[in-house]
Amino acid sequence: RAVFRRLACGDAEGRLEALFGRVRAIQGKSGPFDMLLCVGSFFGPASETEWAEYRTGAKKAPIPTYVLGANDQETVRYFPDVSGCELAENITYLGRRGLYSGTSGLQIAYLSGTESQDEPAPAYSFSAKDVAELKTSLLSTPGFKGVDILLTSPWPRDVETFANSVGEINSKKCGSKLISDLAASLKPRYHFAALEKAYYERLPYRNHTVLQETPQHVSRFIALADVGNSSKKKYLYAFSIVPMSSMDPADLVKQPQDVTENPYRKPQKEGQKTKPPLCAEEEPASQFFFDLKKHQGKKRPSDGKERGNSQPKQAKKPPQPTGPCWFCLASPEVEKHLVVSIGTHCYLALAKGGLLPDHVLILPIGHYQSVVDLSSEVVEEVTKYKSALKEFFRSKGKRYVLFERNYRSQHLQLQVIPVPLDHCTSEDIKESFIAQAQEQQIELLEIPEHSDIMQVAQPGTPYFYVELDTGEKLFHRIRGRFPLHFGRSVLASEALLALPERADWRRCAAERAEEAEQARAFRRDFQPFDFALRA
C-alpha cells in the first residue's frame, strides 16, 4: 500500500517566497513531499508583487499546492472561478466546497471562507446550506466511513472540549458551529484550520461511543500559525498518510492511548437524564443499549436518541429514598461510628465486615443509586476522594481496586479495597477479574482509557464495574442474575489477597468497639491526605 507524504500550512497571506523557501528546505533535508495543502488566507494585502511572478510563470511552486478561497472581500479577486481552477503552475484553487480525490485514492474534503448567516453567503463565506449540501453529497456515498483530510479556514467551535489547552484562543468566540457539525459528520482523520495565528495540535478524539457503537478511526485537529510569523509558531506541518480505502480495517480503528471523547457530540438534555431508575431485573423497553454479546455495535430497536458523550450533570436535588436507607448520611440508620471523612457532597466510611481493616466506601451524602445518576459536583468530589485514597494507599505500599455493583442496591457504594503493590500488578488484577468472570459466564470488557462509566451505562441500567487506581476499568452490563459478592470474591481469591474465608461480609462482622477503633485508626492515618479537613 502506498504511503503519501503531505505538507499542510497556515495563513500564507501572500508571503510566497517565505513559504516555498521553507518547503524547499524541508524537502532538501527530509526528502520529497507529494503535495502542499494551504488553509486560512493564501493571499494578503501585500500579495501583488510576489504573486505576479508566480502568475506569469516567472517562478513556480516547488510541489503541487492546493489552496482554499478568500476569507475577506479584498482577496476575492484572486479567485476567478468559484468552482475551483488553476491559479498558476503547480498552484490550484480547490473551490468553495467539495471533495478532492486524486489518483492516490486519498479523500480531501474542503470548505472555503468564513461562516456567514446570510443566504446566499458572500463570495468569501459559506452558509448552513453550503455545509448541508457538502455533508449530503458525501454521507450519501455507499459505505461512507469518513474522509482522510478536512481543510477549513476557521476553527471548529468547542474543539478544545475534553482536550489539551488551546492557550488564549477561545473557540466559542472565533470557532464555527457549522464546521463543528461538518467535522462531526465527515469524521476526518486529519482536520487542518488556521486564521487565529496560533499553532494547536489537539489530542486525537474518537468517532464512536465506547461499547455502544462499532469502533471507528480517530480524528486529529491541527491549527497552524501564519507563515513567517515573528513568534516562530509552527505554520508548516509534515505528515504521512495511507488512504483510508487502502488500510486494513483493524489498523484503521486502532485507538492511541491519549485519545479523548468527541468534542462535538451533544450531551443528553437534562430532561432525558432524570428518568426514574428501573428495578434491577427490568429490561428497558425503548432505549438503545449496546449488546455486549455482539462486539460489532449492533443496536436493538429504539425510539429514543443515541447517547452522545456524557458531560457531568448540572446541579439537581437527589431523589428521595422510598424507605429507610442505610447509607444516606442524614438517615438514623447510618452507623456513624464507621464514618472516617465527610466532604461537602460525599463521605468515606469503613465497610461493615470489611475484607480488610482499611476496606473503605466512597458514598454520596444524598440519595443516589449509581455513579451515572450523580450530579457534576458530586462526581467532582468522588474524583477528589479517589485521588486522596490513591495517594494514601500508595504511601503505604498499596494500590486500590474500586468496584461498583449497580444491581439490587438503592444507594451508591464505591467499594475501595487496597492490595499490596508487591503482591500483584494491575495486569494480575485485571486478569483475575476477567478469568473468574469467564468461569461464571460473565462478560467483563475493558473500557478504553479516557472514558468514564457515564459514557457506557445509562441511568437505570444494571451494571458492575471495576476501576484500578491507574484509571483502567472493566465493565459488565447485567442482564439477568448476578452474584452479589462477585467483586469481593475475586479480590479475596487465592490469586489476589488469598482470603477466601472473608468473601462474604456477613462472616466478617466485628464488635462495635472494634469497628470504632479501626475507624479511629484509619481517620488518624488518612488525616494528612483528607482534603475535606482543609476545606
UniProtKB/TrEMBL annotation:
GO cellular component, one term: post-mRNA release spliceosomal complex
Span list, region Disordered: 256-278, 291-321
InterPro entries, per the entry: Cwf19-like, Cwf19-like_C_dom-1, Cwf19-like_C_dom-2, HIT-like_sf
GO BP field: mRNA splicing, via spliceosome
Bias (Basic and acidic residues): 263-273
Family affiliation: Belongs to the CWF19 family.
Listed PANTHER family: CWF19, CELL CYCLE CONTROL PROTEIN, CWF19-LIKE PROTEIN 1
Official protein name in the record: CWF19-like protein 1
Native species: Halcyon senegalensis
